[in-house]
Amino acid sequence: MLYLESFVFKLARKAVSPIYAVYQRRLESQVKNGEVPNHLAVIMDGNRRYAESAGLLPHEGHLKGKNTLENLSDWCRSVGIKILTVYAFSLENFNRSKEELEKLMDLFEESFRNAGDDPRVHKNQVRVKALGHRELLPERVKDAIDYAESKTRDYSNFNYNLAVAYGGRQEIIRSMKILGRMIEKGELKADEIDADLISSNLYTSDLPDPDLILRTSGEERISNFLLWQLAYSELYFADVFWPDMRKIDFLRAIRSFQQRKRRLGK
User: Fold this and answer.
1) pLDDT above 70: residue 265
2) What pTM value is reported for the model?
3) What span, in angstroms and rounded, lies between the C-alpha atoms of 177 and 184?
4) Measured distance CA(96)–CA(92) in Å, rounded
5) Which position among 71, 93, 114, 124 bears the catalytic label?
């Protein structure tokens, strides 16, 4: 049975076809009848390799990836995932070429502005939030982030978080510094520090930890993403570049999550 399903899936990926449509509907029905992650976190990897393989410039790969992200938001809402956190730009990504960085900053500015104005965001009451060292971003990007956050701050049906200028180790260091200053002021004793206190000073302090971490491109590593928060997260690695990810890939990740027995350290 597993062999037959694998064969059908490979056929379905070759083109949009009746076989693909039937397989996707069947899979989506299965997923909707099971427990879905409350919080999905995604490492969107493979934009530049996709562009290279398709004979495109790097920024064209990022543009294609932006379209995939918009689709992912819709897919999450369609199956009932309430919280989506995506790794859009790491601190290490600042080492890329000036030309690529400019294109990326243009894309971030546009994306946050669009999120603040998107009728789907307001219809579904999606709260948009940026996670990371925003002080390192250009003013125009920070203004766009403020715009999206201010337009959606009162929403609570869904949470849409973009990690921009983000690093997991640096996030933990930031939390430690906050606690250190509290100790210096006499507001906190070292013995009072526990996991809950550290979590309360992370960017995700108002969110539950991710249930599922999904990474594309076939790479099997975390790359400094949500290092504290993923302690008990399930991991899923998809062998497809981010711009090529389709709904059926997303559904297979969710079904894999549903087939696992989560012990949460017990």
Assistant:
1) no
2) 0.91
3) 10
4) 8
5) 93
